[in-house]
Amino acid sequence: MDSTEWDSVLQYISDSGDFPSPQTERPVSEMTGISLHPQLPPHTLTPPNSDKSTPSDSQDQSLHDLSENTVVSVSTTFHPGANLLSIPPDLILLSSDGVFFYVHTTRVLSASRNRFNELVPPKANKATLRDDLGPVIALPDTATVLNVVLHIVYDMSSTHYRPSLDTLVAAVDAMAIYGLPPKQHIAPSTPLYSMILSQAPIQPIIVYALAATHDLYDLAVPVSSHLLSFPLYHLTDDLAVRIGPVYVKRLFFLHLGRLDALKRLLLPPPHPHPPTDICDFSEQKKLTRAWALASAYLAWDARPDLSTSAMETALWPLADHLSCDICKKSLAERVKQLIVQWSVVKVRRC
Q: Distance (Å, rounded) from C-alpha 149 to C-alpha 153?
């Protein structure tokens, strides 16, 4: 295969559009040409009367070329021709990384409780920096964050953009700043709730902190089940402050409650049976002592996320040292009972 053929193969393989990565955020903007100087009068190009042009003609032509050829980044969803509403957009939001979002003042004001952090006037008015579709308001948020926020404003899903957890966290925090109550927009039936919850297995403490910050109870409850393996000593001061005392206490109680329940469940030994010729009470005490040692081993190094297989691994070998079939049966019943009881202990709390 010659170099030309290899180049075509490598180009095909490297085409990210054919193999989308679920971990990569999709771009929220694209480069496009817009007119940034609509206030200039329209120019009609006519043949000059002579070979020389006056300075004013050259200046007008330069301004005209600038207005026609300026290339900027515009949102792929909130662009001038999006037709999100029956009326054209009359407001432009500019992200911190230079992406233009064309929106409607009425929609933003109806969704926000504080006029988008007092940045959007009650009525559209002229501004120093503007184009033909409304005043431009510069915001401190990046385009990916603002994209999620505006999808909430328009009651649309941004799932197809595959925002990262950092983007989602920043977007929810921004929602609170811009007068979009997270509690109102992050419910179990909403796309934003599903997107955030899908990140819980990867970074549960970050999702839990987000839920705690905005008191999202319905989100914190399912996330807490992913925190059973989280070492509480890894909780930093900054993270504890963000979570707050109420949800920190609930997280600690979840861990401590599981450990206390485990100790209580491990305490009772297998039930004794009536003495027989080959197994009297003194012989049955061997099983009781062996159970006590094995359960103490489990309790000593216990974790809230202790698996049932770990329990079976520690307790089933006790039967190898028993000669009484009745004791073996009693041990088997006790282990099965323990597994069932541990599996129903609460794994989530908020």
A: 6
